[in-house]
Amino acid sequence: MSALPKRLRIATRKSALALWQSEHVAERLRALYPGLAVELVPLSTRGDEVLDRSLAAIGGKGLFLKELEIAMQDGRADCAVHSLKDVPMELDAGFALAAVLERADPFDALVSNIVRSLDDLPAGAVVGTSSLRRQAQLRARRPDLQLRDLRGNVNTRLARLDAGDYDAIILACAGLERLGLRERIAARLQAPDWLPAPAQGAMAVECLDGDQATMDLLAPLDDPRTHRCVAAERAMNRALHGSCHVPVAAFCTEQDGVLTLEGLVGDVRSGYALRAAATGGSDDPETLGRDVAARLLAAGAGDLLQAADNWNPVPPLT
Q1: Torsion of CA 311, 312, 313, 316, to 10 degrees
Q2: Which of 36, 35, 13, 8 is nearest to 99 (CA)?
Q3: pTM above 0.70?
Q4: CB-CB neighbours of 149 under 10 Å
Q5: DSSP state letters, 198-219
Q6: 147 bridge partner residues
Q7: Torsion angle (degrees, nearest 10) of CA 215, 219, 220, 223
Q8: CB-based burial of residue 119 (10 Å sphere; 0-12 exposed, 13-18 middle, 19+ buried)?
Q9: 214, 6 Cβ separation under 8 angstroms
Q10: For the chain, how far is it from start to end, CA to CA, in angstroms?
Q11: Which pairing describes strands 146-148 and 248-255: parallel, antiparallel, or unpaired?
């Protein structure tokens, strides 16, 4: 093992949720290493700054990582904390995921001030989300709804809802719970009826590939069970060449050494969705992910993925 450093600088986005997640990692590290000085390095990313267009239109979720990765390359930070669902399936060369923390609630939340369930929304209600995965599943359940793009941090989105711009919005349960906003959850949208994004609810710590001292320092934060489940989900998404441009969902569980992975590819326009599931040993989550992807492709998911690449995202609220 390499000699452990005396100081660790964590690059983070400036949103309340990102700061909470990074401080959570910092607190865990301070408890593990009482003599370690842990600092946060808050940075603004292009994904945070450009809010008038969908993520798909401006380049994808990787825009939330770039400035943090540059800070590591420049020596201004030693690692970065991410929501793993925002991390591209393939990291750029020179970077590695050193730890995946225990998963929080992986599911989506319906947030509304007028109803307590998706079925109770009135016909034609306006629902906000920028996620194609969420849009596809909403169209499958409620084709009558008006879907409108919604970007910004959690508090910004809640403020738009509270101002009456939307009848409901869809957010991640984990983010609301981490910010102490659990009471805002009107309903949890959960498997098997509704599937989350691959790795939703899990946090990951990224560092420079080859920085063994930092990797050794972060290793105790890794939760093997979570790591295996999200590895299967990300492997499925990788095999499908999934991104924020396409409506792909996945959810893996582990019981008695057996992984069960459910996957979905949807169509944003019609709500039509293909599903597949398989089980596999916990020692090889990557193979399980590729297996479920192959089943989806054999069922015709390729056509849905190609159609999604040509899809214009839903318009912003005007």
Answers
A1: -170
A2: 8
A3: yes
A4: 21
A5: TTTT-EEEEEETT-HHHHHHHG
A6: 127
A7: 150
A8: exposed
A9: no
A10: 56
A11: unpaired
* Token pair belonging to 218: 């972060």
The structure tokens listed for 42 are: 């808050």
Catalytic residue chosen out of the listed positions 48, 78, 86, 167:
86
Residue among 188, 172, 176 nearest 85 (CA):
172
Helix, coil or strand: residue 17: helix
SS3 of residue 82 by DSSP: strand
Distances (CA, A) of 159 to 15, 135, 142, 260, 291: 15, 21, 24, 38, 42
Contact 89, 61 (CB under 8 A): no
Cβ-contact 132, 308 below 8 angstroms: yes
* Count of Cβ atoms closer than 10 Å to residue 253 Cβ: 15
DSSP for 180-201, please give it.
T-GGG-SEEE-TTTS---TTTT
284 is catalytic: no
**Size (the chain), residues:** 318
| Contacts (Cβ under 8 Å, ≥6 apart) of 51 | 151, 152
List the chain pLDDT tens, one digit each, 318 residues. 567 789 999 999 999 999 999 999 999 999 999 999 999 999 987 555 444 444 454 444 557 799 999 999 999 999 999 999 999 999 999 999 999 999 999 999 999 999 999 999 999 999 999 899 999 999 999 999 999 999 899 999 999 999 999 999 999 999 999 999 999 999 999 999 999 999 999 999 999 999 999 999 999 999 999 999 999 999 999 999 866 578 999 999 999 999 999 999 999 999 999 999 999 999 999 999 999 999 999 999 999 988 876 555 555 554
Residue of 3, 64, 31 lying closest to 212 (CA atoms): 3
3-state DSSP helix/strand/coil % of the chain, to nearest 5:
40, 25, 40
